[in-house]
Amino acid sequence: MIRIYGLTGGTGSGKTVAATRFEQHGICVIDADKAGHELLEPGGGAYQQVVEQFGPDVLTHGRVDRGKLGHLVFSDEAARKKLNAIVHPLIFQVISRRCAELSREGHRAVIIDAALLAENGVREKWLDGLILITAPRDVRVARLVAARLITPRQAQERIEAQSDPDKKRPLADWVVDNNGDLENFLATIDAIAGEIHA
């Protein structure tokens, strides 16, 4: 049986850096965001429903424009809930199939990189462990502005659209505070990778 670990944290916390480091240790990582993006492609499982729900204004040259969609849902909670209701169940179907494939291939562990894990104070029963990455809010805003080329206001909206990561602390097996010291952060991830391999 494959062991399934969750990797979660708010946008701008450093989850992607952690995921890359885990992969360098030979641990497979399934990126929920990437799965969600693929579902929004023409012919993807969520494409038609999203166009029907939000209209052709979210399209650019026949493809869902994630910038337009993001602007809409990050400023409107009702729209965000509608999008999540369409996409989240499909993402978990993709994750489930991929975990089954990795198990058949003989992998002993997999990490699910997903901000949507352990939402609303409830941890998924199928997780064997949960890794929470946290960072100060001002650090997260600065990272998002630099990486995504958005305004500080837009960065704040994206942070506020997600649940408070601190509420996930009691549910996590490992909490990694990523305050900007990269060497220390990576050393902590290395130690967790060692425990997963053990």
Task: Please sum up the structure shown.
The protein is of the alpha/beta class and 198 residues long.
Low-confidence stretches: none
CATH class: Alpha Beta
Query: Structural class given helices, strands, pairing?
Result: alpha/beta
Radius of gyration: 17 Å
Q: Characteristics of this structure?
A:
198 residues; alpha/beta; Rossmann fold; two-stranded antiparallel sheet; 8 helices; 7 strands; 15% strand; globular
How would you sum up this structure, described in words?
The chain has 198 residues and is an alpha/beta fold. It has one domain (3-197): P-loop containing nucleotide triphosphate hydrolases (Rossmann fold, 3-Layer(aba) Sandwich). It contains eight helices and seven strands. It has helices at 15-24, 32-39, 47-54, 66-74, 77-104, 137-148, 152-161, 182-197; strands at 3-9, 28-31, 59-60, 63-64, 109-113, 129-134, 174-177. The strands form two sheets. A five-stranded parallel β-sheet has the order 2-5-1-6-7, with helices on both faces. A hairpin with a 2-residue loop joins strand 3 and strand 4 (63-64). Helix 1 (15-24) crosses helix 8, helix 3 runs antiparallel to helix 5 and helix 6 crosses helix 7. The protein is globular, with a radius of gyration of 17 Å. The two termini are 15 Å apart. The model has no long low-confidence stretch (mean pLDDT 94).
